[in-house]
Amino acid sequence: MKKETLLVLVLAVLFGPCFGRAQANPKTENFGLSLSGYVKTDLIYDSRQTVNIREGHFLLFPKGESLDPDGRDINAKSNFNMLSIQTRLVGRITGPQALGAKTSGLVEAEFFGHSDEDINGFRLRHAYVKLNWQKTELLVGQFWHAMFITDCFPDVISFNTGAPFQPFSRNPQVRLTHRFEKFSLVATAMTQRDFVSSGPEGASSTYLRNAVLPELNLKCEYVWKNRRNGHELLCGIGVDYLKLVPRLSTNTGYKADESISNGAGMAYAKYTMPGWTFKCEGIYGQNLYHLTMLGGYAVHEVMDANRDDVDYTPLKNYSLWGEVHTNGEKFQAGFFAGYSKNLGSKETIDGEIYSRGFTIDSLYRIAPRALYNSGKLRLAAEIEWTVAAYGAPDNKGVVMDVKHILNCRLLGAVYYFF
Predict the structure, then answer these.
(1) Alpha carbons 400 and 395: distance in angstroms, whole number
(2) Is the terminal CB of the chain with fewer CB neighbours within 10 Å at N or C?
(3) In the predicted model, is pLDDT for residue 20 greater than 60?
């Protein structure tokens, strides 16, 4: 089958309705649709068992010790896999003006699936429409969480993109951006879909939906460019607010009225010059579970044993990461380093815990990488050293008597862009 015929078939399946509308109305002269993406295969070796997603493809951190009756660590077993589930398709849409604004849209999907049981499944990543006026932009749809900075994130080979040190989440949202010369303000209201909070019913978007208030984020960003020598500075700060309603009824059948409110803050910077790029970010927050980071919340105390009324307390942590890489067109080399610290809770914990990494005091990762581009083909390799400090949490979730557990991941990747 000729490649032109295959391309037409793919376009017809994915975006047939869009083409149909364009052909039905020949006056939409500004309408356009372009298809791009890549085919990618990852070859993965881990030195021990890990906490991960999709058969090890999305690495978080090494599993802790699990000792058998002879005192041997069951999780001290290496693992190997090959996967092509990150293969991706992107459709970019342009159209005529509406409401005095330039319009555009995007649909992006991949074969990552919605769960481990659905691996290889075709799932939605991004789907949004944009309205662009002279200084204002409105985005409505599913896109990266406002704490994932699309102009300043780890450019690692691993699909985890720096998680759990870097926020990683995509959310249905309404995002308004207004630019003032070199500054911009971004206000975002978000719900949850694929990346959700934890609670009494497991991981679910129910807790945010029942709060009847979207997650709110406000961000300020500054950009400076020197076009003569190719230098550029980007920096920004942001705050985030999340309210959850963990349950509607108590274990004894009474209506539950509890909720928990959480806050987070971030600061980031990127400096680009012709040969090098430097990036860094710091995050401090409560209950960052939905961002694929450490943390969550727990029951602080039972207020009424008969009714089973409880009070919740958030678990806090901070995370820092930095990266440097070269900017060559053919060959690039880079180095990523990240650190995350569990700060526990302000209040004592006396009940259920809804958290990621509750027995981890801290995490750190170093990851050197190299890649080579030849036309549309990319060959890449990366080493991830991830160390988790496991221990016993006290009554405030502060982890004591830690033991460091290491995983070494060797990652090779082959891309073909189109």
Answers:
(1) 11
(2) N
(3) no
